[in-house]
UniProtKB/TrEMBL annotation:
It comes from the Bacteria. InterPro entries: HAD-like_hydrolase (IPR051400), HAD-like_sf (IPR036412), HAD-SF_hydro_IA (IPR006439), HAD_2 (IPR041492), HAD_sf (IPR023214). This is HAD family hydrolase. Gene3D superfamilies: 1.10.150.520, HAD superfamily/HAD-like. PANTHER family: GLYCERALDEHYDE 3-PHOSPHATE PHOSPHATASE (PTHR46470:SF2), N-ACYLNEURAMINATE-9-PHOSPHATASE (PTHR46470). It comes from Candidatus Photodesmus blepharonis. GO terms for biological process: small molecule metabolic process. Its cofactor is Mg(2+). The keyword Transmembrane helix does not apply.
Amino acid sequence: MNVRGILLDLDNTLYCYNLAHDLALKKTFDEIIVKFNIDREFVFKAFNKAKIRTKTMLPISAAGHDRLLYFQNMFEILKINPLLFSYEASEIYWNHFFKNMLLTEDSLIFLKKTQKIPICLVTDLTASIQFRKIKRLKLDDRITSIVTSEEVGVEKPHPFPFLYGIKKLGCRLDEVIMIGDSLENDILGATSLGIKSFLINRNSHQDDKIKKNGSEHYTVNLLTEIEIDRL
């Protein structure tokens, strides 16, 4: 397959977001439980409610992922002054998140194998956090460009992030591919524009969803299964 540029998702595509998130959240909850002497179950339920509340208020905005807003809303639900520990909780979360980030083995091989092809990360969440992730993963000398949902004002699967990424790569639609782990956000967003797309289906966890959707795309378990040649 000949391509001139790659649109690439970041979270759960190049590294295991879920693992880093779970460990970071546990550490943050531990700190909150000790500081305020409250039950873990109450904290857990309040956090989930806060996350839903934030995303409901900011459905297409990068701010809908803001951990500071999550913790602010969580403390409000718990009837605790959010100014006491929301910022600190957010910092604890992200510091431990970054510590537990690690590129998957197939990602390392893929990035080396495609080093002559420019890559644009197309990713949701705020620019400051995504840039910090890139630095932590030492991708700043490999990734050519990045488009965040904060930058374009909308999230995937809206066409803007993909189109802006293609513009940054200096390519045409038929000269790029999209690679990501989310069928709804990465694959459907890209295929709706006619972009050849690859779904990373690690551990076959999306098999049922893929069968029901019927989207025209390629499905692989590892990035190393994608064969690419430069035009």
